[in-house]
Design goal:
alpha+beta, globular, five-stranded antiparallel sheet, 5 strands
Amino acid sequence: MTPLDRITERVNRLGHPDDPETPRPLVTIDEFFVGNSEVGSIGCNLHSSPTPEQFYAVFRSIAQRQDVKDIRVQITAFDVPEWPFSDTVYIMTSASPEEVATWFPSDLKPDETWSGFLDQPYEPYAAPAGVEPVGCWWD
């Protein structure tokens, strides 16, 4: 199975992500980034046009922090056949949104960070004990 076949199967489990009735998939960083070479699949409006590999390296580093228990990539759309698109990543942490924003290099810094999941349907997911989701959004 190719990486594209794998991620396509994964994000379509509950329906097509472009259907507003489908709960947003929350995939792991490995699920989203392994095999992903599609520039613009995340951070598409950043001036530096970062590669998925650059984001993956940052998220792997963040995942090693003692105050981080998990990271989930929200699949926002799958309207480009090469790879699903995300504009939001949730970091399960005890840190504040303001602190989380400082964990990114300036060229990959999210446009906004906030506490909690947005008010929309997500696939079933429970944050690990002792942490809350911090949303990171790239416009």
